[in-house]
Design brief:
- By secondary structure, the protein is α/β, with parallel strands linked by helices.
- It has one domain: 3-Layer(aba) Sandwich (Rossmann fold).
- Helices cover 39% and strands 18% of the residues.
- It contains 10 helices and 15 strands.
- The protein has helices spanning 13-23, 75-96, 130-144, 163-174, 190-202, 221-231, 243-249, 254-263, 272-277, 286-300, and strands spanning 3-8, 28-34, 43-45, 63-66, 100-104, 115-118, 148-151, 154-156, 177-179, 184-185, 187-189, 209-212, 219-220, 240-242, 267-269.
- The strands form 5 sheets. It has a 7-stranded parallel beta sheet with strand order 3-2-1-4-5-7-12, with helices on both faces. It has a two-stranded parallel ribbon with strand order 6-15.
- Helix 1 crosses helix 5 and helix 2 (75-96) packs parallel to helix 3.
- The longest helix is centred in the N-terminal third of the chain and has 22 residues, at 75-96.
- The termini are far apart.
- Mean pLDDT is 93; it is low at 304-309.
């Protein structure tokens, strides 16, 4: 039986991988929602920021996979896309009789940690940024319609312009890497996330609710920064500072303090049952996934030379 699947946000970091994964499924027919849709049966024109443009987008669709989001920038734009745009898209899906809705959100809706082995439903939704607040609002629209919300934490891999580049920038700001930090971070390679999203979209196991989607093994911050320095960029070879010193150095930079506030506190979200429930293995851990992505990161960050640890 063929499943007709509509993907919103298919030009983005996560959405493009989800589209590629869905196209590999012989029993899936993919349609892509785009603001500037080229001619062809695979595309449908629609803009989340312009709700009337979504009319008819879900006609003939079995499953809606919503990967679109506005990250950073103007607050009103985030509200228009993440909140009101999601509400309009969900309403259109309900009107068209779509049987499943899957939304790729973020664990950032939980706000600041520490979170240690937190399972779905164990931590409150307490976003601290405009992006997270509006994505939490998007979640509510999806959940109210009986949809499934997936919350990854740190997503890395080719195309990532936020997570690993942000760590390199932070180390440049500090003129050092961190030492003495025992925090752990939930992470997932973007290709593994795409497999998980498509598996969840096609599986009857989880009809609705919230699931955490990360590799089961959290990554110690010391390992994370060590890999970044060794394989991508070592902004200040050999220079190390402890957390209190790093906070002192970052005192005049809200952005650096934001990064440190996340990095130096546990953000470990546990949900091993998700992977078995959708019959999708989580894949290799961080070391192997990051090694594959390292050449792309070096190119993106200006062909910086990695060093041997």
């Amino acid at each position: 039986m063929t499943t007709h699947l509509l993907i919103a946000g298919a030009s983005g970091f996560v959405g493009s991988r989800v589209a590629a994964e869905a196209r590999r499924r012989p029993d899936v027919r993919v349609r892509l929602l785009s603001r500037q849709a080229p001619p062809g049966p695979e595309y449908v024109r629609g803009d989340l920021a312009v709700p009337p443009s979504l009319r008819g987008a879900c006609a003939g669709i079995d499953v809606l996979v919503h990967c679109a989001s506005r990250i950073g920038g103007d607050v009103s734009a985030a509200e228009a896309v993440n909140d009101r745009g999601t509400r309009a898209l969900v309403e259109e899906a309900v009107r068209a009789g779509v049987r499943r809705i899957v939304y790729v959100s973020t664990a950032a809706v939980h706000g600041r940690g520490p979170f240690r082995g937190v399972r779905p439903g164990e931590a409150p939704v307490a976003p601290v940024s405009a992006t997270s607040r509006t994505r939490a609002a998007a979640e509510r629209h999806v959940l109210d319609a009986g949809g499934l919300v997936l919350r990854p934490h740190l997503v890395y891999g080719e195309g990532d312009r936020w997570v690993i580049p942000g760590l390199v920038w932070l180390m440049e700001e500090l003129s050092a890497t961190l030492t003495g930090c025992d925090a752990r971070q939930s992470m997932i390679d973007v290709t593994a996330l795409a497999r998980a999203v498509v598996a969840a979209a096609l599986s009857p196991r989880y009809a609705g609710g919230v699931r955490h989607v990360n590799h089961p093994e959290p990554v110690p911050v010391t390992d994370l920064l060590g890999r970044v320095c060794a394989e991508v960029a070592a902004p200040c070879p050999g220079a190390r500072v402890d957390v209190p010193t790093a906070l002192e150095r970052a005192a005049g930079s809200p952005r650096a303090l934001h990064h440190l506030g996340m990095l130096t506190v546990d953000h470990w979200f546990a949900d091993d049952a998700f992977w078995t429930g959708v019959d999708c293995p989580p894949g290799e851990g961080f070391a192997a996934g990051f090694a594959r992505a390292a050449p792309w990161y070096r190119s993106y960050l200006g062909n910086r030379t990695a060093r041997t640890p």
